[in-house]
Amino acid sequence: MKKLEAIFLDRDGVLNKDSDDYIRSVEDVNVYPFVSKTLKKLTDMGLKIFITSNQSAISRGYFTEEVNGKIFEKVISDSEKDNGKITDFYYCPHLPTDNCNCRKPKPGMFLRAAKEYKFDIKNSVYVGDSVCDWQAAKNLGIPFYLVETGYGLETAEMIRKEKNIEVKTWKNLKIVVEDILHHRDIKTQRKKL
Question: Is 133 a catalytic residue?
Answer without folding.
Answer: no
